[in-house]
């Protein structure tokens, strides 16, 4: 691992020459800093980066579950530092995956990456073959945990082989090494060209999928950070569900043992019937199995919906539309945006896992309430009593809603002046029948106290449900207006958006690309002219002397310029 990093660092070129290059000419700007991956860039190997993160999913879950072994022997107060050390070790062990994918020395990177990935793959397969079972899940535990990482490593092996063949074939064809470093990507250039074109007179017809689900944009590509985060999030979610299944298995076994012990007690003592406990275990088991699938589907849909929201928000920022942002986030500090890029991936995965757990618990609670409220009464022949209770509740709710609607209709019909124009949608906010209006307010004051109590409970219920339901999505805040700053996840999302907007804006990159191309052309012209002058003279001419000679030649040919020269 260290050897791979050292080799790639020695082959990596630096942008500028240093003093050490003058002392040691063999370096030739070598020994540069290896960049494992560009979290803001849009590279062609961003899916390979995502699978490289997927290959490290089991290590991430070990950190998430505090399974990193130094944590068990250290005191509690130093646990945060130990977690940071463990995360650094995980990052260091996975560093060659990303460095070999992103290095400019592609033949060496592909070869070393293939060997390193193959070594990891062989070690894991041998470990699984020797002992496929474990102490937590039991039979085939390691296969259940490690197969996503093995699939990702197989993908990386194929990617490294593809890189090696592609670069080798290109060198055989041209004899030169390919340099893929560019400031402007192809889709970004097409985006700028599309902005300069006239908009079509008629918009093309969209299919049902494009109108309601997703519309592919050829001028937009997700950065490596988003792809890697989503791949790793889905794999970690799978492992989290497996761990949750194990916990449920332990709890259910404990309840079964408790129930079997309770069945033996009535023979010797007066103990209540254990039938309700059996019924509860069966209900929870059925509801839990059903809600595992629904909670997983909800979390996976959040993963893809976050990608859609990211594209939508970035497009709005590129168009100069910041109305969707809270007032407090209209301007974000630069340091917060820089930190947000580093935080986002880890925080999004953690939010998604905790969000899945909370959503699953909520769905289980609602499922148990539904079974006990509707299904079991019908099953036990108590459907009529249940229907009466349900009808009474629905009728009470309908009366409350009817009173609220009646207040609205009465206010619109009797206490507002007529429309100014027949085409107006609503009446103007101008009172009519003021005496009746004051009596209306007086008598409804007391009844609205009770209605307000119901509305308050409804508000609390909706806030709790929506807050728990959207806890996994940090692309929207769950805090009320004015308190968005307290939502650290949403603050990270906004900072990341601004960072991407300022550093990946196609218009800005296109402008920088044109400047870089023009500067390179000017430099080439200067180098060509210098070579031509050097070829005419057999001796070395200093740059200052050449400049003075050109100045003298220009003044001799253009005497009128002498009067315009700045005096010394």
UniProtKB/TrEMBL annotation:
UniProt subcellular location: Cell membrane
Secretion signal, residue range per the UniProt entry: none
MF terms in GO: retinol transmembrane transporter activity; signaling receptor activity
Example GO biological process: vitamin A import into cell
Gene Ontology cellular component list: plasma membrane
Main location: membrane
Domain of life (superkingdom): Eukaryota
InterPro entries according to UniProt: STRA6-like
Residue ranges of the TM segments: 47-65, 77-98, 110-131, 143-165, 226-243, 287-308, 353-378, 390-408, 442-471
Family annotation (Pfam families): RBP_receptor
Membrane topology according to the record: Multi-pass membrane protein
Sorted UniProt keywords: Cell membrane, Membrane, Receptor, Transmembrane, Transmembrane helix, Transport
UniProt xrefs under PANTHER family: COILED-COIL DOMAIN-CONTAINING PROTEIN 180, STIMULATED BY RETINOIC ACID GENE 6 PROTEIN-LIKE
Name listed for the protein in its UniProt record: Stimulated by retinoic acid gene 6 protein-like isoform X2
Source species of the chain: Python bivittatus
């Amino acid at each position: 691992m260290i050897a791979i990093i050292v080799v790639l660092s020695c082959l990596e070129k630096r942008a500028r020459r240093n003093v050490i290059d003058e002392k040691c000419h063999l370096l030739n700007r070598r020994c540069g800093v290896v960049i494992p991956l560009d979290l803001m860039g849009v590279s062609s190997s961003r899916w390979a980066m995502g699978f490289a993160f997927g290959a490290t999913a089991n290590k991430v879950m070990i950190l998430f579950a505090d399974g990193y072994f130094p944590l068990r022997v250290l005191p509690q107060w130093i646990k945060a530092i130990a977690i940071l050390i463990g995360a650094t070790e995980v990052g260091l062990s996975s560093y060659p995956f990303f460095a070999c994918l992103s290095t400019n020395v592609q033949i060496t990177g592909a070869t070393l990456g293939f060997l390193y990935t193959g070594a990891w793959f062989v070690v894991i397969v041998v470990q699984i073959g020797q002992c496929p079972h474990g102490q937590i899940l039991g039979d085939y535990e390691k296969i259940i945990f490690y197969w996503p990482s093995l699939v990702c490593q197989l993908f990386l092996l194929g990617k490294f082989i593809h890189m090696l063949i592609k670069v080798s074939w290109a060198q055989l064809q041209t004899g030169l090494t390919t340099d893929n470093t560019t400031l402007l990507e192809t889709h970004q250039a097409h985006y700028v060209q599309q902005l300069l074109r006239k908009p079509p007179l008629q918009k093309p017809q969209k299919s049902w999928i494009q109108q309601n689900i997703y519309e592919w944009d050829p001028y937009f590509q997700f950065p490596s950070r988003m792809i890697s985060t989503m791949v790793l999030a889905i794999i970690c979610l799978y492992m989290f569900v497996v761990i949750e299944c194990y916990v449920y298995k332990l709890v259910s076994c404990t309840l079964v043992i408790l129930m079997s012990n309770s069945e033996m007690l009535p023979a010797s003592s007066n103990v209540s019937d254990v039938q309700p406990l059996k019924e509860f275990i069966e209900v929870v088991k059925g509801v839990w199995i059903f809600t595992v699938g629904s909670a997983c589907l909800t979390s996976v849909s959040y993963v893809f919906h976050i990608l859609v929201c990211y594209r939508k928000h970035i497009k709005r920022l590129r168009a100069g539309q910041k109305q969707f942002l809270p007032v407090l986030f209209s301007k974000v500090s630069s340091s917060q945006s820089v930190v947000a890029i580093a935080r986002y991936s880890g925080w999004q995965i953690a939010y998604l896992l905790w969000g899945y757990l909370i959503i699953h618990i909520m769905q289980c609670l609602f499922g148990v309430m539904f079974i006990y409220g509707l299904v079991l009464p019908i099953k036990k022949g108590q459907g009529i009593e249940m229907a009466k209770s349900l009808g009474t509740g629905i009728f009470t709710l309908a009366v409350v809603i009817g009173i609220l609607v009646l207040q609205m209709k009465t206010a619109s019909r009797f206490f507002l002046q007529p429309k100014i124009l027949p085409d107006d949608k609503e009446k103007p906010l101008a009172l009519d029948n003021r005496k009746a209006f004051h009596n209306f307010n007086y008598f409804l004051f007391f009844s609205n106290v009770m209605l307000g109590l119901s509305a308050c409970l409804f508000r609390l219920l909706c806030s709790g449900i929506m807050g728990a339901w959207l806890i996994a999505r940090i692309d929207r805040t769950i805090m009320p207006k004015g308190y968005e700053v307290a939502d650290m996840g949403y603050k990270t999302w906004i900072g990341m958006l601004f960072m991407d907007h300022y550093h990946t804006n196609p218009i800005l990159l296109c402008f920088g690309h044109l400047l870089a191309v023009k500067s390179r052309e000017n430099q080439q012209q200067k180098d060509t002219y210098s070579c031509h002058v050097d070829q005419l003279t057999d001796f070395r001419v200093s740059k200052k002397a050449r400049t003075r000679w050109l100045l003298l030649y220009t003044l001799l040919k253009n005497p009128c310029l002498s009067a315009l020269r700045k005096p010394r």
